[in-house]
Design a protein that fits this description.
Helix content is 18%, strand content 31%. By secondary structure, it is an alpha+beta fold. The strands form three sheets. The chain has a seven-stranded mixed β-sheet, with helices on both faces. Strands 5, 6, 8, 9, 10 and 15 form a six-stranded antiparallel β-sheet that branches. Strand 9 and strand 10 form a beta hairpin. The radius of gyration is 22 Å and the shape is elongated.
């Protein structure tokens, strides 16, 4: 750890300085300046074989942000070095990326629970899905959870193909979709949700029910939420982020703590 650098919260500039010094210690050329570091002939592998390292400061509160950084680096055949500005952020980043890899949780049967990202659920007929809370006002934003569950009622499907994609809000099931691929273009049918919305030519948000009947018009998302209409966030599905099958995504990242400790998916990097 360099003199004068303290553990705990650090500025982005200081965090990148720690990243640069760590890469130099491990045999990487940082003459081009952070965020890129090139491996020299005697470089210590950070994740997998020695490769270009791309450093990004990530605070750890947004799992989708961390996963997107890793996916971007993997698409460029680089190792994502996620630089945490605090010890707590480093622990959260590790949890989002490694325990289990790229997921919030996973059952012994392989059924996954996904992180929730900032993207919305787009519907096949156009518009975006809404979830309605009836209690209130106020109408606090529900805790949304996306997970896989076995489709025991479908004997013609096997293994992962039998897994439904289940959305819950505050612990109550909202809808069940056919699986993660249901979210791909064109998206699920609007009947899977009680309401949906889209921006009109008047730049306002028009809310309709599943049958397409008008329910209300709002000037923004905040106004919708104040009336109990909450946009449904999409899950972060790893295979939808990573497209390079020849480079395992989880081998393309490492987390750097403020004191210079570097941890990849396989463990500490010395």
């Amino acid at each position: 750890m360099s003199p004068g650098v303290q553990t705990g919260a650090m500025s982005e500039r200081t965090s990148l300085a720690v990243a640069r010094e760590t890469c130099k210690r491990l045999g990487y050329d940082t003459s081009e300046g952070t965020p890129l570091a090139r491996p020299t002939g005697d470089a210590t592998p950070i994740a997998g074989e020695p490769a270009l390292v791309e450093a990004t400061v990530v605070d750890g509160t947004d799992p989708h942000r961390a996963l997107a950084v890793v996916a971007r680096a993997a698409s460029r055949d680089r190792v994502a070095l996620l630089v945490a500005p605090s010890d707590g952020a480093a622990r959260r980043l590790w949890g989002a990326l490694a325990d289990p890899p790229l997921l919030r949780a996973e059952s012994d049967a392989g059924e996954r629970e996904f992180h929730v990202g900032p993207d919305r659920v787009h519907l096949a007929e156009g518009g975006l899905a809404l979830h309605v809370t009836r209690d209130g006002p106020p109408h606090p934003t529900p805790v949304f959870e996306w997970r896989e569950a076995s489709a025991d009622d479908d004997e013609d499907r096997a293994g992962a193909d039998r897994r439904r994609l289940v959305l819950s809000a505050d612990g109550e099931v909202v809808t069940r979709l056919g699986g993660v691929e249901t979210l791909a273009c064109p998206g699920p049918d609007r009947e899977q949700f009680t309401h949906h919305y889209r921006r009109g030519d008047d730049r306002l948000f028009h809310v309709r029910d599943a049958d397409g009947e008008p329910v209300g018009v709002f000037d923004g998302v905040r106004a919708m939420r104040e009336r109990g209409f909450h946009p449904v966030p999409a899950p972060v599905v790893p295979e939808h982020l990573f497209h390079d099958a020849e480079r395992p995504p989880r081998r393309s990242w490492a987390v750097l703590a403020p004191d210079g400790r570097l941890t990849a998916d396989a463990g500490p990097v010395e």
